[in-house]
Amino acid sequence: MGVLDDIVVGVREDLAERQAQVGLTELQTIVATMPAPRDMLGPLGAPGLSVIAEVKRSSPSKGALADIPDPAALARAYAAGGASAVSVLTERRRFGGDLSDLAAVRAAVDVGILRKDFVVTDYQVWETRAAGADLVLLIVAALSDADLARLYALATSLGLTVLVEVHTAEEVRRAVDLGARLIGVNNRNLHTLEVDIAQFERLSALIPPDRVRVAESGLLSVADVERVAAAGADAVLVGEALVKDGDPRRAVAQFIAAGTAAQKGK
Ligand SMILES: O=C(O)c1ccccc1NCC(=O)[C@H](O)[C@H](O)COP(=O)(O)O
Prior knowledge:
Layout lengths: L2 H19 L2 H9 L8 H5 L4 E6 L2 E2 L3 E2 L6 H11 L3 E5 L9 H10 L3 E5 L5 H9 L4 E5 L5 H13 L3 E6 L2 H10 L3 E5 L11 H7 L7 E5 L5 H9 L4 E4 L1 H4 L4 H17 L2
Helix pairs in contact: 2-6, 4-5, 4-12, 6-7, 10-12
The structure holds the ligand O=C(O)c1ccccc1NCC(=O)[C@H](O)[C@H](O)COP(=O)(O)O.
GO molecular function: indole-3-glycerol-phosphate synthase activity; phosphoribosylanthranilate isomerase activity
Pathway: Amino-acid biosynthesis; L-tryptophan biosynthesis; L-tryptophan from chorismate: step 4/5
Organism: Propioniciclava flava
């Protein structure tokens, strides 16, 4: 069993506990009273490089990354630096996250919020919307075509923008066939945890130009961000480099400026 399969087993166990506490009907009642999510395709595809800045405490590949006692404060720094969206890892066992982090970030910033988790059921999509997220991640490698299509349709019907994550040429094909508007190339292989930022360079050309392209994972320096921006990234999703930086506001602003310049020079 690869790392991704292992993570999903734990996610399903934790999910069963939450479902026993809050039923689907209760979530649907909450959602019915909520304002519509922000549409994030426009901001992420706007001219210049957009940054999706992640709240990430730990990871299977690197272990503990940063104490983040106040996710809202970190999110405010990201937004002040110009981040278009904040990604909140809500998986508990491997990433030290929680849905309450997302709620705290929602209350603190007015930019888009991505729920970064391993979404494999309809319940999680409703839960994402009820928590106040604007975007949800669907990982192609974790889903059959039928599940991917059903979850995508549900999420879009709830007003969520879906970030469809791929890592191989075959997964790009599945994402494009699905009609995904926002496609993220994860430079990290979720079965082996190997990272290679050339993966974005290889797959970017396979994504039709009318889709918004996100380069995800392993972007640790300005040079890395410049590289993917020159290869066609409209946006980058960055965790480790930002949570380990003593000045996340400045780090986000620097990535935006460098990436935007690299897009123009390509
Ligand atoms: O980060 C991991 O080790 C990881 C392992 C298995 C599944 C997912 C994983 N990360 C989730 C993410 O997608 C990243 O947190 C995100 O792309 C940011 O990556 P980074 O900038 O490398 O922290």
